[in-house]
Amino acid sequence: MSLSDPVAAPVPEPARPRVARLELRRSLRSWRSLFSAAMSALALAMTILALTPLFSVLWMVIVRGGAKLRPSLFIELPPAAGMPGGGIGNAVVGTILMVAIASAIAVPLGILAAVFIGEFAPESRASTAARFAAKILTGMPSILAGVFAYTVVVLATGTFSAWAGGFALAILMVPIVVLTAADAIQGVPRKMREAAIGMGATRSQVVCHVVLPTARPAILTGVMLAVARAAGETAPLLFTALFFDYWPHPPFTEPTSSLAVLIYNFSGVPYPNMVGMAWTAALVLVVLVLATNIIAQVVTGRSEHSR
Predict the structure, then answer these.
(1) If you write DSSP's letter for every residue of the chain in order, what string do you get?
(2) Residues contacting residue 83 through CB under 8 Å, at least 6 positions apart
(3) Is residue 228 within 8 Å of residue 292, measured between CB atoms?
(4) C-alpha angle 72/74/80, rounded to 5°?
């Protein structure tokens, strides 16, 4: 270093740790920090308070429903009034049958409507009207779907049946599938559509090979939500399928039992065996809905991993 070089500025001394600790302690005691901590504690308390009824109901269903849970329950028919034993096998089969019929009607119809709303004419008047109608139907009381299905199917065929029950449940499933699938389709990035069109794909090929596979996880989630609602409905089935003490058999044109109606019928009788069976049916219904959602999530995860 030569004598003409400027003298380097002295390096400031680091702040003392004691001063940093005092400032941190003062910031933790400020009214903003205290207010934030109080709001966090309040939000946690409200969350626990909101979840308490849910977990208490689940615990009661598990405890009281598990008391009569046994393998033979799924292969036996319901008992007569005041008789011991019996099972819920026909109600399980009837529930699966009517939900399958409803899904066969609602899922294709809902996805086709969602493709029109979200892909082909998202800004048209017909699309706006269809979306508005779907939102109205999601808040419609389920008993109205049962009355409509009774008028259209039961009176036309002259009998209560699984087909009428499935039609009533499909009315409740369609708006859920339409809204969730339309939102999923609109959420697909526009660049993916443009890339497919640039490679020479037609509009239908873009929808079938790009848009729907990309939106499949969200669409499947909406379908599972619709299935969960349909499986737990009682009022529409009272107008369309009623209850039957025997196994359903093709062509399914007779009254059909279901878990929801079995719970409704058995929970109000003065016989402890049938009341306990209603609790067991409620547990089985919860497990079926939960298993369906888990299977859907697993299938969705594998499809995303394969892509």
Answers:
(1) --TTSPPPPPPPPPPPHHHHHHHHHHHHTSHHHHHHHHHHHHHHHHHHHHHHHHHHHHHHHHHHHHTT--GGGGTSPPPPTT-S----HHHHHHHHHHHHHHHHHHHHHHHHHHHIIIII-TTSHHHHHHHHHHHHHHTS-HHHHHHHHIIIIIHHHTS--HHHHHHHHHHHHHHHHHHHHHHHHHTS-HHHHHHHHHTT--HHHHIIIIIHHHHHHHHHHHHHHHHHHHHT--HHHHHHT---SS---TT--S----HHHHHHHHTTSS-HHHHHHHHHHHHHHHHHHHHHHHHHHHHHHHHHHH-
(2) 273
(3) yes
(4) 80
Amino acid at position 107, single letter: V
Cα torsion angle, 276, 278, 280, 283, sign:
negative
Tokens of 157: 């065929």
Q: Summarize pLDDT for 240-292 with one digit per residue, the tens.
A: 998 888 898 888 889 999 999 999 998 888 888 888 899 999 999 988 888 88
The domain segmentation of the chain, as residue ranges, is 19-66, 71-306
Q: Are 161 and 199 in contact (CB under 8 A)?
A: no
Q: Which residue from 256, 283, 265, 303 is spatially nearest to 102, judged by alpha carbons?
A: 256
Query: Which percentage of the chain shows pLDDT scores above 90?
Result: 32
**Do you find a cis peptide bond into 251, omega within 30 degrees of 0?**
yes
Q: Give CA–CA dist 231/95, Å, rounded.
A: 7
CATH superfamily, domain at 71-306: MetI-like (1.10.3720.10)
CB 248 within 8 A of CB 162: yes
* Residues 135-175: tens digit of each pLDDT: 888 888 889 999 999 999 999 998 999 999 999 999 999 99
State the pTM of this model: 0.80
